[in-house]
Amino acid sequence: MSIDPIILYDIPSKAPGCAWSPNTWKIRYALNYKALAYKTEWIEYPDIADFCKKIGAEPSMTRRDGSPYYSLPVIQDPKTGAIISDSTRIAEYLDSTYPDTPKLIPAGTHVLQKTFCVAYDNATEPLVQFIIPSVTKILRPRSEEYFLRTRELSFAWKEVEAGFGKVDRWLNESMNAGKPYIMGDVVSFADFMLAGELQWCMRGFGEESDLWKDMLKWHEGRWARLVENLKKYEGPLEDMTD
């Protein structure tokens, strides 16, 4: 049986610690929460599809025109030989393969977690139009050109705050009021999804930016507290060496 660490394939940036993508941050949090040994290998944006095909990673989704869409995160587990794409599938794999570690998706909450993630994306969609232009400043040259070519811009900051306000109201329902996590006092994968998006904003906008400082004040500091509470699961970060 191999004792080599799990490989997490991630997208590099010029931001401190290199990691920035909300989707790969979900799995970075998850691996650290489970205390599973892993190492990062960095793949530039335009290389992702060819790399995934080369190692046998499945597409993360199918586009409307029927063509496959490849994205990161992808993990490769030397212990089992498995190569898993898509953050939710990775979370399910980690729970089933390492049952003695803390659960990312506690029993009976799979639909809840998935529904929350979809609803969160819908509620906070306006954020994308602000973070995308900022992300281009931290991407390395090859990924920056690809990113600009494949994304579109615009929308209003107040709509972003209103979207996060909707999520805040969900989390402040009477049974959950005052609790730090989506499942109250219990950490779950949905928290990592949310915190991954916040990492994206912090690194894309920059920690000293007015937009990030503004987000930290929203909803009585809920989002700042979430990032702080999950700091212990960020793990060691690394800059990419050329």
TrEMBL record:
Residues 11-102 form the GST N-terminal domain. GO terms for biological process: glutathione metabolic process; L-phenylalanine catabolic process. InterPro entries: Glutathione-S-Trfase_C_sf, Glutathione_S-Trfase_N, GST_UstS-like_C, Thioredoxin-like_sf. GO terms for molecular function: glutathione transferase activity; maleylacetoacetate isomerase activity. It comes from the Eukaryota. PANTHER family: MALEYLACETOACETATE ISOMERASE. This is GST N-terminal domain-containing protein. It comes from Mycena sanguinolenta.
